[in-house]
Amino acid sequence: MNVIEIKNLTKSYGKSRGIIDISFNVEEGEIFGFIGPNGAGKSTTIRTLLSLIYPTSGSATIFGKDCIKFAPEIAMEIGYLPSEVFYYDKMKVIDLLNYSASFYKKDCSKRIRDLAETMDLDLKKRIDDLSFGNKKKVGIVQGLLHEPKLIILDEPTSGLDPLMQQKFFDLLLEENKKGATILMSSHVLSEVQRLCSRVAIIKDGRIIKVEKMSKLTESNYKKFKVEMISEMDKNYFNISGVSNLEVKEKTISFLYKGNVNLIMKKISDVEISNVWIEEPSLEEIFMHYYEKEA
Ligand SMILES: Nc1ncnc2c1ncn2[C@@H]1O[C@H](COP(=O)(O)OP(=O)(O)OP(=O)(O)O)[C@@H](O)[C@H]1O
């Protein structure tokens, strides 16, 4: 079952493009990544989904319901962390969270305490005494306190230190194990790689690829680094399927796509002192898609 279905969604801001003809689905139980550079249209897509802004054309459903018509009902089951959080500065953290919790028909007080402890957030502090990262934590607790079935996160980790990012990811994985579906936007590809099972790549307002993470990372490309006994002509490895060929003294590195036997034979035919064969990082694959489409 699809928790989110986006069909041909377009949003123009006057003359400037926001998003163009966006379509993708997020299945129940998935952690789905939405990746693209600044200004690509991630926030616009998410804000349209949440009915914070209205599409120029196209439609979307969440839990099978139209996201505009049923917006208030759907909102009860969604936890949303915006890319930037703004609060009434004079309030105490606990008062703000209790106020947020009052919108839901359940007692969230224990959950607030547990989340605050996990995220190392001081509930007694005033919002305006908090650092940017700690304000982000307030947003995280606020988004998760009602145990939503769908968690939508817009650039969730900006402002969190690495330890907190890890705790936050563990928390998300736990929520996911309990059944929550997660849609997370990011331009930090390594974090998407760590968490998500499927991704949509957005560029200039358009989706350029929706793919399983495993497929995207295996992608047939392999990264080779060969250390030679003595310096040699780099063109030796310049066969069909080889790209990004680079030489640094006795070390030759390149990307290879094709029959692995052919390249292994080339390597074994010369004297080498070492070889490394790696999967390319998501960054490298991502750049490849971008260059291809540019
Ligand atoms: N309120 C607005 N008025 C006019 N143009 C807008 C508005 N909001 C967004 N845009 C434009 O829409 C496009 C998509 O912006 P959006 O904020 O959705 O991108 P993003 O992928 O979330 O980027 P970022 O990672 O920087 O937040 C950009 O070209 C942006 O300038």
Automatic annotation (TrEMBL):
Superkingdom of origin organism: Bacteria
Record's keyword terms, sorted: ATP-binding, Nucleotide-binding, Transport
Keyword Transport: yes
ABC transporter domain boundaries: 4-229
Single Gene Ontology MF annotation: ATP binding
Pfam families, A to Z: ABC_tran
Family stated for the protein in its record: Belongs to the ABC transporter superfamily.
Database matches in PANTHER family: ABC TRANSPORTER ATP-BINDING PROTEIN, ABC TRANSPORTER ATP-BINDING PROTEIN NATA
Protein name per Swiss-Prot or TrEMBL: AAA ATPase
